[in-house]
Amino acid sequence: MNKKIEWYQEVLSLEPGSRIFFALAKLFVENGNPEDAIITLKRGLDRHPDYLEARMLLVELLTELGREEEVHDQLERVTSSLRDYPAFWRGWARSLPPEQRDLAVFLMLVSSNLTGDTIKWTDVVFEGISTLADRLVGAPLPPPSDCPPPSYLPRAAAEPGRRDRGASARPGMGSFRTKTMADLLASQGDTAGALEIYRELLHSSVSDDRRSELAARITELEARLAEAPEPGRREDVFGVHAKNRLISTLETLAARFEARAQS
Questions:
Q1: Disordered: where is this region (predicted)?
Q2: CA distance 193 to 166
Q3: Helix 34-47 with 52-64: angle, nearest 10 deg
Q4: 185 Cβ partners below 8 Å, 6+ apart?
Q5: I need a labelling partner for 35 at 20 to 30 A (CA). Which of 80, 146, 147, 223 fits?
Q6: How do the domains of the chain map onto residue ranges?
Q7: Helices in the chain by DSSP H: which ranges?
Q8: What digits encode the pLDDT tens for the residues 13-43?
């Protein structure tokens, strides 16, 4: 755990604007260092104020530590974000099973009050849960479509030469294609790059536990990739620039660790 924390801290020292601060904060929490997690979250949120999940974790930690005087400002930033997306609340309510219809109505009551279209409990009493549910929630969402089972065939085997293009194009990087590096790429939004490494690791792994862990991670990222915009759209030059910077950061980080090992 400490080595992973050190790795993330090294990345942040090279790229202070990286969103990996959230992953580092969660590691601090898992390691029993909530104060360090709070410091990390506040620094990261100064650069990424719209990172909702990071701010919610900060609210959680401040509350657990009894620092409630600091919670108000963070809460306002969270609720203001949730207030702007009423479709999120309706989608959540519609996704619930029929036996949780009461919860669905409650979610719509929260949404209505956040957006200013106030519904009072007296309205619930006089109108009734069932009628109110039909009016506020509407029909449930259709069930998710069946997806074909994911393929765990390593991309390098499916696409000859792909591994050489990815690893050999940058001398010295092959030995650093580890799970930690894949985790870093995934946390930075490079899902395809992370998948490539996970598949290679799955192909070379001999431990059943390790293979199960990697297979689960591959399934998760393949689902995320399936929800991404369709290929064929014009390449985002800003995304390419960010990816190049990440690769450069990883190379520098790898060189640092190699120098330490040899010293």
A1: 140-174
A2: 9
A3: 150
A4: 191, 193, 194, 197, 246
A5: 80
A6: 2-83, 86-136, 155-262
A7: 2-14, 21-30, 34-47, 52-64, 71-83, 86-95, 101-114, 121-127, 129-136, 155-158, 162-163, 179-187, 191-204, 208-226, 237-262
A8: 878 888 889 999 999 999 999 999 999 999 9
Q: Residue type for 82, please?
A: L
**Amino acid of residue 194:** A
Angle between helices 2-14 and 237-262 (to 10 degrees): 130
Could you tell me the pTM of the whole model?
A: 0.52
CA 15 to chain centre: 19
What is the C-alpha to C-alpha distance for residues 253 and 237, in angstroms, rounded to an integer? 24
pLDDT of 41-55, one tens digit each? 999 999 999 899 999
**What CATH homologous superfamily does 2-83 map to?**
Tetratricopeptide repeat domain (1.25.40.10)
Amino acid, res. 16: P
